[in-house]
């Protein structure tokens, strides 16, 4: 499989899809999350769960991640040119990328090459990455903040890390994992967890977003709880950049 991953990289088969992110109050589009896909010649668009480990093991996650940053920043530049300069793009970053000495430079290059405001880029770090790479992040957080990019905690709810500690980090957004969002309409434990997270985040001045919204019942509960943003197939599925850009300029 490693050989297949190298071949896919050479053939430019790793592409970026974009999922719209909406404001919960007025359903206004506020940005996009960049989602990596492997456009496999036989199996179609493969999800990262099928290949991300291979990219990590091979080290290709670094150049692929840099390409995602470049593509994502260029995409949001084109979307902003349509009239909404407040749109942002969210990019997930792995621990392997953070440990690579060139991450900050690659991030800044992507921003400057696309000629976007640094605040148009949101770097998303999972709980697991925050836990496993705390030492490196203690150095990188000031650099990211000084550059003006936003930082979000992604996949909250999948580890046992205390939220109080996470919210002491210089982050602007807490993204609740789909595993919790899935049960928010009828699971008392999920509701209690999310309600507690919401209260702590508010006290810390951090907005809260929901990922993986797939049902109207979920959306209703999230709205009543005061979530700031949401994304999911109910609202809009991930699509290639071309489908958004073609709609704009057709």
Automatic annotation (TrEMBL):
<dbReference type="Pfam" id="PF00563">
    <property type="entry name" value="EAL"/>
</dbReference>
<dbReference type="InterPro" id="IPR001633">
    <property type="entry name" value="EAL_dom"/>
</dbReference>
<feature type="domain" description="EAL">
    <location>
        <begin position="1"/>
        <end position="250"/>
    </location>
</feature>
<dbReference type="InterPro" id="IPR050706">
    <property type="entry name" value="Cyclic-di-GMP_PDE-like"/>
</dbReference>
<protein>
    <submittedName>
        <fullName>Diguanylate cyclase/phosphodiesterase (GGDEF &amp; EAL domains) with PAS/PAC sensor(S)</fullName>
    </submittedName>
</protein>
<dbReference type="GO" id="GO:0071111">
    <property type="term" value="F:cyclic-guanylate-specific phosphodiesterase activity"/>
</dbReference>
<dbReference type="InterPro" id="IPR035919">
    <property type="entry name" value="EAL_sf"/>
</dbReference>
